[in-house]
Design goal:
With 141 residues, the protein is mainly alpha-helical. It has helices at 15-46, 55-67, 73-83, 87-113, 137-140; strands at 4-6, 9-11. It has a two-stranded antiparallel ribbon with strand order 1-2. Helix 3 crosses helix 4. The longest helix has 32 residues, at 15-46. Belongs to the HD-ZIP homeobox family. Class IV subfamily.
């Protein structure tokens, strides 16, 4: 092809080629922008939204928890349908509730010992601590 004057500069690119190049650039540019927009949209969709359950939902699950702290799949599905929740939400609520109960039990046990003196190894006479190499330790322990 014969070169044409383009933007005041002699060019070997034809006018049609230049138009195609620009169209291609715009397609790539808008495609890239769409990918960025889709990526942002996907990130927002993937991001977990914080959700508080209603007082009614919590009250119902608490009542069920007292009778059955480990509901099976069928029970979770029924609860979720009754309360307008997803079965996974119910599953995680019960899982979190069981963990909370366990932590509460551990905390109450630990609270009984707060303020009470613990025997330190410095306070115990070394003669009362059997050494593993002493005769009779292996036989008794």
């Amino acid at each position: 092809m014969v070169g044409k004057q383009h933007f005041g500069v002699n060019s070997n690119i034809s006018e049609d080629d230049e138009i195609q190049r620009r169209v291609h650039e715009e397609i790539n540019k808008s495609s890239s922008e769409n990918e960025d927009a889709n990526s942002t949209e996907n990130q927002l969709l993937k991001r977990k939204r914080y959700h508080r359950h209603t007082a009614h939902q919590i009250q119902e699950m608490e009542a069920f928890f007292k009778d059955c702290p480990h509901p099976n799949n069928r029970q979770r599905k029924e609860i979720s349908q009754e309360l307008g929740m997803e079965p996974l939400q119910v599953k995680f609520w019960f899982q979190n509730k069981r963990t909370q109960m366990k932590i509460d039990r551990i905390s109450s046990i630990a609270a009984k010992y707060v303020g009470k003196p613990f025997a330190k190894s410095d306070d115990i006479p070394s003669s009362s601590i059997p050494h593993p190499m002493d005769p009779g330790v292996a036989a008794s322990g």
